[in-house]
Amino acid sequence: MEVMEGNIAMLSKTKLWLHAVQRWGFSFLIGMVSTGICPVSAEVLMTTDFESGTFSGWTVFSTSNGTLGGKGFPTVALCDHVNPVSPSHCLQVQVGQLHYAPTHELQQGGGIGLTTMTISGLIQLSARVGVTYHSPDYKRNLNGGLFEWVVDDQVIADLDVGPMEDGGTVQHQFTGKVPVPAGRHTIQLRVTRPFQSGAGKPAPIQFVDDVMVELLPQP
To answer: What is the domain-level CATH number for residue 209?
Structure first.
């Protein structure tokens, strides 16, 4: 009889403990909702690593007096900036002014863009971008390039690389985020420089890889 009563008492304590755990878990979920700490899932609208050797759904464009580098550019080629043992493909351009015009809009070049339909939310953008510079004649270039995320003709994030030394390589994770209403939206990754580029010009080469376009729910 004492053993049975002990088992009953133990079962009662176990039920009370499970009930407390359930109540605590429910209260925790209510607290997450009330404080806005709710798990959110992003819808991936586009992801591009250029391993196909193509622009993979993106449209290439140039600015009014811009160039993406002349003959041979833009191109999708092997990049060994991260892993020389197992290099990946990336988009490569050599942006700048087509004809030097110091009294007009200096930043010229181009980039890649796409158009997409979305519900209202937050468009989140990311890409691995970088610049390399090699010149047999000049030890330094004054401008490696300006990277910009542009959504519906508005710049939402920018990254100015600045001067580049001969033999130098820089790279960054370039991100941006902007709220949008439901409808059609244009997205561009624009790259420009305030100097000439083209055949025979010792201009830096810009590269883009691992591009992702996502849509997050409005908070």
So the answer is: 2.60.120.260
Q: What is the pTM of this model?
A: 0.80
The structural domain count of the chain equals 2
> Domain range for residue 89?
43-216
**Separation between Cα atoms, residue 193 and residue 111, nearest integer Å:** 12
Could you tell me which of 64, 74, 68 has the C-alpha nearest to residue 101?
64
132: number of Cβ within 10 Å: 18
Cβ atoms of residues 167 and 210 within 8 Å:
no
In the chain, the amino acid numbered 187 is I
- Span 26-84, pLDDT tens digits: 343 334 434 444 446 889 999 999 999 999 899 999 999 999 998 999 999 998 755 55
Measured between alpha carbons, how far is 136 from 144 in angstroms, rounded to an integer?
17
